[in-house]
Amino acid sequence: MTVQQPLSGEAVEHTTLAVPGVRCAACIARIEDGLSGVPGIVNARLNMTSKQLSVDHLATLQLPELVAAVERIGFEAQPLTADASTPASSESRQLLRCTAVAGFAAMNVMLLSVSVWSGAGGATRDVFHLLSGAIAIPTVAYAGRPFFRSAWSALRRGQTNMDVPVSIGVLLVTALSLYESLTGGAHAYFDGAVMLLFFLLTGRALDSVMRDRARDGVTALVRQSAPGAMILRADGRSEWVRAEALTPGDRIIVAAGERLAADGVVEQGDSATDRSLITGESKPCPVIPGDEVLAGTLNLSAPLTVRVTAAGADTGIAEIARLMSEAGQGRSRYVRIADRAARLYAPAVHTLAASSFLLWLVLGAGWHQALLVAAAVLIITCPCALGLAVPAAQIVAAGSLMRAGVLVKDGSALERLAEADRALFDKTGTLTLGRPDLINLEAIGPEQRPVALALAQASRHPLARALARSLQSTDVVAAPLAGVEEEPGFGIRATCNGVPVALGRGDGQDTLSATLSIGDDRTVLHFTDVLRPGCATTLQQLKRLGIEASVVSGDNRNSVAAALAGLGLTAQTGMRPEEKMDAVARLQGAGHKVLMVGDGLNDGPALAAGYVSMAPASASDVGQNAADAVFLGDSLAPVASAVRAARRTMRVVRQNFAIAVGYNIIAVPLAFAGLVTPLVAALAMSGSSIVVVANALRLRSAAQ
Amino acid sequence: MTGLALLIPLALALGLCGLGAFFWAMRGGQFDDMDGAGMRILIEDEE
Question: Are A384 and A558 in contact (CB under 8 A)?
Answer without folding.
Answer: no
